[in-house]
Structures are given as C-alpha cells and as structure tokens.
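The data layer described in this paper is built around a simple, fixed record for each protein. Such a record has a labelled line for the sequence and another for the backbone structure tokens. For reference, a complete record is included directly beneath this paragraph.
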Amino acid sequence: MPVRHEVVHCYGELASAMSLMASLARAREWDRLPELEARCAQLVDRLKAVGAVSLDAAQLEQVRGLIARIHADQDEVCALVKPQLERLVAKMAQLQNRSDLGKAYGLPH
C-alpha cells in the first residue's frame, strides 16, 4: 500500500477505534477499553514511523475530518472515564485507611 494511502488508512482505523471506545465508555463497558487503547497506541506508533507525508488535497481534507472525529471521541472518553478513575482512587484510599486502622487496632481487615 502506498505510504499516502497507509496514512489515511491508519487515521481511519484510529477514528474507528476511538468511536468504539466512546460507545463503550457511554455503555460503561470499561473492560474493553484497554485493548482498544493499545490498538490506538499501535496506530499512532505506525503513523510516527511513517513520518511526514505529502497528501493530496482530498486526502488532506479526509485526514483533517478524521482527526476532528478522533479528538471529539477522545474528549468524550476522557470525560466519561475520569470520574470513574476518581471514584476508584477514592475507594482504594478508603480501603487502605480501613486496612491501616485494622492493623493499628488489631482488627481483621
């Protein structure tokens, strides 16, 4: 596949993966996100490896549209995941405090 087409293809794949991540985050299906995040990282690494490529006007417009979609979906995923992570961190702190108190007073934790 010519490099220019590979770039457009990678951005298309990245946009699809981010769209699926946003759908899964909306559905609170957190367990599938790490796999998709890894796929996105692979695609970004591939784009970095390809480097700067001169695209024709149509390809450039297509890539710009894909990047806009990627950013919008990425923002949505972050907005949905961040509160979940904050709750998880708070719960972990609570459990740690309970464990520390149990150890201090000789209680089962």
